[in-house]
């Protein structure tokens, strides 16, 4: 809830930044991503100069640091395994079961990274009307808060990893017809890619507060941008992997493999950078 003495920014129904006047003078600024990633509210002096931030308590910061580490490492390993699977498919004669196993292992790490990201949003320090500092709440394993853009973005990301899991599990099936392959393997892959793109778009809206922006000095902006580029590569790969019923072969095998390889490297690189976006 935004009070009359506060200025809110965002897009549509989502609020991504709120600025209000502090009792001791100057301004306090809550921003969605820094609050859930670093557990901080910014402060500004009357002159506009950056002041010392208000930080959450040690318990909240430990939570955020741990969850960020789990998510970052999971995306690095998951991306590396996806890249390895795509490379094996593109340049070796390794059997499809072995390649599917590599992808499935990578998918489990993506599941872990997605859920850890959701937990960061669920347990992020909150604003309270009686204080300018972040308030820590009781630990939760789940919440339902679709009105919050950080929760919605991470939930859609996690849902995308789960849908990818269906695609990767079905990829172990052998001797599928073209129509069966499209229904059981390709369709979940496309749904997962679309969910990743939606999650990335919401994350960009969160970082940019509703408008396209370039924050070259903002680590969060770089992470979101690199991951969104990776999602585009995944989508291109999925489109190219469609099995044509009349031929029984993918639209473009090279694009399917190398698109996956490029997208996976983007998520792995994003995970490396994400490790440093912590309290």
Write the layout of secondary structure elements.
Blueprint: E1 6-11, E2 14-21, E3 27-31, H1 32-38, E4 40-44, E5 54-55, H2 58-91, H3 96-122, E6 126-128, E7 131-135, H4 149-170, H5 178-208, H6 219-240, E8 243-244, E9 249-250, H7 253-274
Antiparallel strand pairs: 1-2, 2-3, 3-4, 4-5, 6-7, 8-9
Q: Quick summary of this structure?
A:
This protein is of the alpha+beta class and 279 residues long. It is 59% helix and 14% strand. It has helices at residues 32-38, 58-91, 96-122, 149-170, 178-208, 219-240, 253-274; strands at 6-11, 14-21, 27-31, 40-44, 54-55, 126-128, 131-135, 243-244, 249-250.
Structure description:
- It contains seven helices and nine strands; from the N terminus they run E-E-E-H-E-E-H-H-E-E-H-H-H-E-E-H.
- It is an alpha+beta fold and 279 residues long.
- The chain folds into two domains: 6-55, no CATH class; 58-274.
- A five-stranded antiparallel sheet has the order 1-2-3-4-5.
- Helix 2 runs antiparallel to helix 3 (96-122).
- The mean pLDDT is 91.
């Amino acid at each position: 809830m935004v009070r009359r003495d506060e200025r809110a920014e965002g897009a549509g129904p989502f609020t991504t930044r709120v600025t209000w006047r502090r009792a001791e003078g100057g301004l306090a600024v809550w921003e969605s991503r820094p609050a859930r990633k670093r557990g901080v509210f910014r402060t500004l002096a009357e002159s506009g100069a950056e002041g010392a931030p208000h930080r959450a308590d040690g318990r909240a910061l430990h939570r955020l640091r741990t969850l960020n580490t789990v998510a970052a490492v999971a995306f690095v390993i998951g991306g590396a395994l996806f890249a390895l699977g795509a490379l094996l498919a593109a340049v070796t004669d390794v059997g499809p079961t072995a390649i599917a196993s590599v992808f499935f292992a990578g998918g489990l790490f993506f599941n872990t990274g997605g859920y850890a990201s959701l937990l960061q949003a669920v347990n992020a320090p909150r604003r309270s009307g009686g204080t300018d500092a972040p308030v820590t709440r009781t630990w939760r394993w789940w919440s339902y808060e679709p009105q919050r853009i950080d929760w919605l973005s991470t939930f859609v990301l996690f849902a995308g990893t789960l849908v990818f899991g269906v695609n990767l599990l079905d990829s172990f099936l052998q001797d599928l017809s073209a129509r069966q392959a499209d229904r059981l393997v390709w369709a979940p892959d496309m749904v997962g890619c679309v969910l990743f793109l939606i999650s990335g778009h919401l994350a960009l809206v969160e970082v940019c507060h509703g408008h396209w922006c370039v924050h070259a000095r903002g680590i969060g902006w770089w992470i979101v941008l690199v991951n969104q580029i990776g999602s585009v590569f995944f989508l291109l790969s999925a489109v190219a992997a469609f099995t044509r019923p009349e031929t029984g072969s993918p639209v473009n095998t090279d694009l399917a493999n190398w698109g996956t390889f490029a997208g996976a490297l983007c998520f792995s690189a994003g995970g490396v950078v994400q490790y440093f976006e912590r309290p």
